[in-house]
Amino acid sequence: MRRVTLDSIHVMTKGKSEKPIESTQANRGVLYYPPAFHEAGHVVVAYFLGVRFKKVSIIHNKDYVGIVIHEKVARGLAPEIDMSLRNFNRMENLARIALAGDIAQKKHAPRSSDGAGLDRETVADIAFRLNGSPEAADAWTEWLKISVKDMLTLRWPFVDAVARELARENVLNGEQIEAIFTRHLRA
What we know:
- The chain is 55% helix and 11% strand.
- By secondary structure, the chain is an alpha+beta fold.
- The protein has a single domain (10-186), classed as CATH 1.20.58.760.
- Strands 1-5-4-6 form a four-stranded antiparallel beta sheet.
- Helix 1 (34-48) packs antiparallel against helix 2 (85-108), helix 1 (34-48) crosses helix 5 (156-169) and helix 3 (117-131) packs across helix 4 (134-154).
- The radius of gyration is 16 Å and the shape is globular.
């Protein structure tokens, strides 16, 4: 199994594959596909943090259900060496991106299976590196979850648009992702 490290440019979802099915909710035309919303959550938060993309995919294999490949967010992830505010912000942004997938997936499909283990490992590693004590790391992580949830709620139309396009295409490149945001920002 491939593990996400802090130096990785990938944010992956590992978990059981879910096939798209039509929602039985009142809005029957809405596509129900949690992995697409999970990856869309990563994409939307990263986009609004100014991170550029190479691609996002929901074509799963033995290592992951979905993947977002973006530019490297944090360069030199050693706060014990680089104590700069710039490095702290980069690491916090990487944690925000990692948290966003599961938060978006649970907003879309609260009972969907969890595939965010590697994302949580990334967040926990960053939290301990930045905060030192387990108590401070836990408090920081909870605060960050609230912040990311609010960010996604405010930008949910973007999450929905990316997820729908991703569910249709399975893979989106950076230009396609940019076009989705451009269309919705102009609307």
